[in-house]
Design goal:
The complex is a heterodimer of chains A (110) and B (112). Chain A is mainly β and 110 residues long. Chain A has strands at residues 4-5, 9-12, 17-24, 36-40, 47-51, 55-56, 64-69, 72-78, 86-94, 98-101, 105-109. The chains are: A mainly beta (110), B mainly beta (112).
Amino acid sequence: QAVVTQEPSLTVSPGGTVTLTCGSSTGAVTSGHYPYWFQQKPGQAPRTLIYLTSNKHSWTPARFSGSLLGGKAALTLSGAQPEDEAEYYCLLSYSGVGEVFGTGTKVTVL
Amino acid sequence: EVQLVESGGGLVQPGGSLRLSCAASGFTFSNYWMTWVRQAPGKGLEWVANIMPDGSAKYYVDSVKGRFTISRDNARNSLYLQMNSLSAEDTAVYYCANKDVWGQGTLVTVSS
């Protein structure tokens, strides 16, 4: 099965902007991989932030946005807040095979 | 309120079996793909299996093929994961999700 790679860790200043990426070992990530992004804080279940590349749920803070960037899925956090410190995972779908989570990115707001 | 509640986790010996359940409410369960995800202690999320809304197609991660079976009962708004031939590597919190909403998870510990 495919390997989905994310940055292990990123640091952003309060109020700053950071972009997380999600790449696939099979090639460029496209909308056909139906990218999802999840946030997980210690001791909590994951929470869905972005679905189908760029769509937000009603509970998704406006400072989060999803896109495709340079052959990868991307999650951009603009105006980081202390409460955004968490682990972030992407999920890609592979037709007829199943789905694969990314390796996760730990975001520190400092 | 949309809710997913897992149950059935616990301590099981290597080689044993366990059946997890997930009760759904607050949304039209029969319209959604459903997914099981697990997270080993201190590790990342691992996609385990998913099932089509009508149950006609199911997909599994390679490491559980032939051992785990995902199923659903749309009349009961319930999702299941039958886990056989369990090993220590299956120790994890197991979550059910429709990918929009997640349950709180149930812990499965495989140990003698």
